[in-house]
Design brief:
This protein has 5 helices and 7 strands; from the N terminus they run βααβββαβαββα. Helices cover about 25% and strands about 35% of the residues. The chain is globular and about 45 Å long. About 25% of the residues are buried. The longest helix has 15 residues, at about 90-105.
Length: about 170
């Protein structure tokens, strides 16, 4: 049997710089401008999940994606930031990261926010079973889409109910 070419792990202190440098755009910085100071606090809280891919050229694992998350006391998972290698978000990697978090933490719900004008990010989130556009809020100078996930919607999407399109 052949081993998988990707794996998940919690980030450690040496990963902080690598995580910051892999993604051009992230969930919280969808336009690629501005960067977070770093992910040290999330690493110390053990709330930074990494997706690593095996690179046969260097015969080692390298970080290809990440998700910064927080589990609230009411068992609602909040996704603060996420990103993948490259200039654009990689839908497959993000789905794998989100599904791994949901599988391993078993939250009652998941909440995340993304800029309404970040079409790529909104399309990726909309394509993950269980996520629905809950609403929008205004944060100067932009509109932000509020997405919610529930296990019930992931298992059995409501019949006859059209999911609203995200705002562009």
């Amino acid at each position: 049997m052949e081993d998988l070419s990707y794996r998940f792990r919690t980030a450690a202190d040496p990963d902080a710089l690598a995580v910051r440098g892999i993604a051009q755009t992230t969930l919280s910085h969808a336009d690629g401008k501005g960067r977070r100071e770093g992910y040290r606090a999330a690493i110390q809280r053990e709330e930074l999940l990494l997706l690593e891919r095996y690179d046969p050229k260097i015969r080692d694992w390298r970080i290809a994606g990440f998700v910064d998350w927080h589990m609230r006391v009411d068992d609602v998972l909040t996704i603060r930031d996420a990103g993948t290698e490259g200039e654009h978000p990689h839908a497959g990697m993000l789905k794998q990261l989100f599904n791994e978090l949901i599988r391993s933490l078993s939250p009652v719900a998941v909440a995340l926010k993304v800029r309404a004008d970040a079409a790529e990010w909104n399309e990726i989130i909309q394509s993950i079973p269980g996520f629905i556009l809950e609403g929008a809020e205004y944060r100067r100078p932009r509109w932000i889409n509020v997405w919610q996930w529930s296990r019930e919607r992931a298992i059995q999407p409501p019949r006859g109910v059209r999911q609203p399109r995200f705002q562009r």
